[in-house]
């Protein structure tokens, strides 16, 4: 993992994507340790966390996490998730934070040297290319050790460096990792309905 001590670095965490990857690798993320880990590597000027939040429920399982992040060094970016019932009568939740993440990274590109993107979504390839043209190095954090891989090949090729999540996770995991490979959920296109997992909002 290559970081320069004086680099101005910003973290861009696709919350749903990181949750899916860590869940399938068998660990929970300790966000305090994650931030400290990267602060030891470089000068972190911003750490963004993106998540759609379902506001129709009295209690959201995301609320304790998002409240904690907002008070502990993260810039929290949320928007209401959309809830609907599909043709089979199943409850669906849809939320996508790609546009918000892309806008923030592009706006910050002139003020940073290095962007760290926590997502394996192929939709971000053009975003990575765009900020690279502005002189910003981009690292992608995801995993190719799930089946199927969470990180798209085209995104890995575009990035300046790819960080395998399972390699660095011991620095910020809350429980012992399961070394056995696990099956990742089938990825859905933005036009498809999402499952009823409140964090499944890629």
Euclidean distance between termini CA atoms:
26 Å
CATH class placement: Alpha Beta
* Overall SS class: alpha/beta
Mean pLDDT: 83
Uncertain spans, ≥5 residues at pLDDT below 50?
A: 176-202
Summed up:
This protein has seven helices and eight strands. The chain has 202 residues and is an alpha/beta fold. The longest helix has 11 residues, at 15-25.
Protein model, in words:
The protein has one domain (8-171): 3-Layer(aba) Sandwich (Rossmann fold). The strands form two sheets. Strands 3-2-1-6-7-8 form a six-stranded parallel sheet, with helices on both faces. A two-stranded antiparallel sheet has the order 4-5. The protein has helices at 15-25, 31-41, 63-71, 98-108, 125-132, 153-158, 165-168; strands spanning 8-14, 43-53, 75-80, 82-85, 91-94, 114-118, 137-142, 161-164. β7 (137-142), α6 and β8 (161-164) form a beta-alpha-beta unit. It is globular. The longest helix has 11 residues, at 15-25. With 202 residues, it is of the alpha/beta class.
List the helices and strands and how they pair.
Layout: E1 8-14, H1 15-25, H2 31-41, E2 43-53, H3 63-71, E3 75-80, E4 82-85, E5 91-94, H4 98-108, E6 114-118, H5 125-132, E7 137-142, H6 153-158, E8 161-164, H7 165-168
Parallel strand pairs: 1-2, 1-6, 2-3, 6-7, 7-8
Antiparallel strand pairs: 4-5
